[in-house]
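Course assignment 3, question 2. Fill in each field.
Student: A.L.
Task: Predict the tertiary structure for the chain below.
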Amino acid sequence: MNCQVALAEWRLPVQGTEALRLARAVGADGVQLDFGGPGRGEWLDTPGRVDALRAEAQSTGVRLLAVAGNHLNDVGLTSRAARPVLERLLDAAAALAVPLVFVPSFRRSAIDSAAAFDRTAEVLGWAAADAAARGLVLASENVLTGKQARTLVERVASPAFRLVLDTFNPVEAGLSCRELVAELGEFLADQVHLKDGPPAVGATPPLGTGTGRLDDTLEALREQQVPVRALVLENDYRDGDRARMLADLHWARQRTRSFVTTRGGNEG
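Answer field:
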């Protein structure tokens, strides 16, 4: 299978089945969905929504690649409110038959102390076990150093656990994505988020024009033979500027060649 180019639903001007239709219209291969929540749109497990998304994916040919639990940034991954959200998130992902679920660790979920690290590892440990039982891979998106991230993987201790690589968040935190790829390649999820910096004025910079050194990161992924199933555009297109989206899709598509796309079945 060739490396795919996909869109992140939470960065689009539309949601749900309309996001899949937009992906088809612009020529994207797949979509990562958001679980939703207050201020983030309709819950993914709202009755009838999973069936509608599956039908639309079948109709459009757009693949459902992952579900993101972005709402956990609002409630805190280690809070009491997180467990029921995580369980619903995993159930919805299993019903959609996506291969990957990921949870971010920013804002209220930030891993900003030793205690937060310990609590996060504990939560991800049981969540990874629950994901494996559902045939899913669970991943964490964070800005830990390579050493810290490797320790997190060791603490979670599950073959169903991965790390999501974002091509700019670590740069913004003072880290090198190339070095992270070299240190963590074997633990990375096979879907990579592409963005290239914060907006100078207005829109996020087109891929390849910002400060994220994207080509260096993608070259490191090739050098380390990290399996990359999908490059997922995470620039902000919520203003509806389709020309920017098309330009970024073209940029990413040109760089999908020569990627290893499988790891041997862990993220089928």
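Instructor remarks: The CA atoms of residues 46 and 162 lie 27 Å apart. The beta strands are 4-8, 30-34, 63-68, 100-104, 137-141, 161-163, 191-194, 230-233.
Grade: pending
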